[in-house]
C-alpha cells in the first residue's frame, strides 16, 4: 500500500488529467517527482534569451540549458542539452542554439521553452526509475546511471510499493550500491536521499495504477550531503489514463 501524502496524490491526478502527449515534458515530470519527495535541481523555464540570462543569474553559475518539449524524449540526441555554462553570453548562445536546432527538426516538435537549471556536482551518477513490468507489475529500479547505462548493465528491480528497508536492500544488490556505501577508502555518499527517491517512485507507481508506463531519472546525482534528480521523464500509458479519467 502506498505511503504517499494526499497532496502528492492530488498532484498526480491533476498531472495525469491534463497530460496531452505520450510523455510529460521534463518540467512536468520533475514537478511530479518533487511532489513525491524526490529532490530536484533548482531550475526555471525560459521563453527568451533575456529570460534565460535572468534565471541563470538568479540560480548562480554554472548552469545547464535543456530543451523542453514533450515530443523530444532524448534531448541530448538532438543537441538539446548544453552543460558548463558560466556567463550571460554563454547562456544567450545556448538558448539560441537549442531553439535553432529544434526548428530544423523534420517532425517540427512543439517547443515549450528552454530549461535553465543548476549544474549539480555529484560524486556518483545513478539511475532510479520505475516501470510496469510484465511479470512483477509496478516495479522500481536502481543502479549505475549516466550515458553508459546500457553498457554497464548494473540495475536491479523490486516490486512497488516498497519501504525504506526494502529500498536499502535493492541498493545493496548492485555495484552502484557498493560505491554509494564507500569503496576502497572513499567516503560513503548520501544513501538516505536515494532511499527517499526509491520509496517516492514506488508510491507514485502504486498510486498511478497502470496509468504510468515508466519513470526514468537518469542521472540521479549523489554526493556526501545530498542527492538530486537532474533529469526526469515520465512516460504515460495513455489507454489506461483515458479509461481512468473517462476521456
How would you describe this protein?
This protein has about 250 residues and is α+β, with helices and mostly antiparallel strands. It has two domains: about 5-40 and about 120-245, ATP-grasp fold, B domain (D-amino Acid Aminotransferase, Chain A, domain 1, 2-Layer Sandwich); about 45-120, 2-Layer Sandwich (Dna Ligase, domain 1). Helix content is about 40%, strand content about 25%. The chain contains nine helices and ten strands. Strands 5, 6, 7, 8, 9 and 10 form a six-stranded antiparallel sheet that branches. A four-stranded antiparallel sheet has the order 1-4-2-3, covered by helices on one side. Helix 3 crosses helix 4 (about 90-105) and helix 6 packs across helix 8. It is globular. The two termini are about 25 Å apart. Residues about 240-245 have low confidence and may be disordered.
